[in-house]
Amino acid sequence: MFATGKENKKISVYPNPGQTVFTVNTNSLSKEITIVDVVGKNKLSLKPSDTIVNMDLSNLENGIYYVKVRKGSEVEILKIVKQE
Question: Would the pLDDT of 2 be above 60?
Answer without folding.
Answer: no
